[in-house]
Amino acid sequence: MNKKQEIQIVDVAPRDGFQAVKAPIPTVSKIEVSKALAAANFKRIEVGSFVSPKAIPQMADTKDVHAALSGLSDVRLSTLVPNAIGAKNAIEAGVSDLVFVLSASETHNQSNVKRSVSNSFGELEKIVDMGKCVEGFMLRFNIATVFDCPFEGRVLEQTVQDIIAQAVDLDFPIEFGLCDTTGRAFPDHVASFCSQVIEQYKSNKDIGWAFHGHDTYGLGVANALYAYDAGVRVFDAAAAGLGGCPFAPGASGNTASEDLVFTFENMGVATGIDLEKLLDVAALIDAFPDVDTGGHVRSLPRKRICG
Known about the structure:
It contains twelve helices and ten strands. By secondary structure, the chain is of the alpha/beta class.
């Protein structure tokens, strides 16, 4: 492993995790989880999404959740938006950190956001124009199915490269989220592609990189480690391994935040996260009805994990 530089973990359970739960989660419970994650010292948390409540009813109270969390200090709260309308609604609700998602695969993009990749990119351009007028605006551009599509199989690297190049040409600060949407990426593929794009854009200080992994095939932590070795320093994960894209058949939960914290910390890579408090959050989530949780370390005795 290369230089042991500290990393930042973005917990996405309050969005990517909760959206996969069919039973309604009370707004107060969503607020409780986000506050508990902040207490565990997460500096970035992805909370809900501004999407059509008909498409994802679980996210209908995102505005209320963000409003209740507005008093949190020293933590950035982001929200996912699939289009310019969602971005406008989020900004009007006082959210300055937006996560825009577009799939490299045409088939998955149609399934996920009901539009072509080209049309989705037009939405990104509108969001960039909005962001120029918002103080403290931060844009994460999540590219889904970077490595594999549940409908088309392995995605051509050049397809992803073209999307990245087109976004860079917007000449606006962007953090790219390279997403293993299905959890079917393999460590060597993750390492080679992350290394390639980081090297290609290393002179552009307005570009950042994050890795978003799922643990469908038990490769979530391994892929994160290979992404780290390639130069990635921001990682998405979800407490209790909650999640799974509802528009990617067969995809299971996100890589568990506690698994990443446990692994990186024991390898000498600082995360800044209080693992004991994070395990409490995972237990809180696991007690919700109709949740499909995952992860590994939380099933072990605490003294073996935190001792």
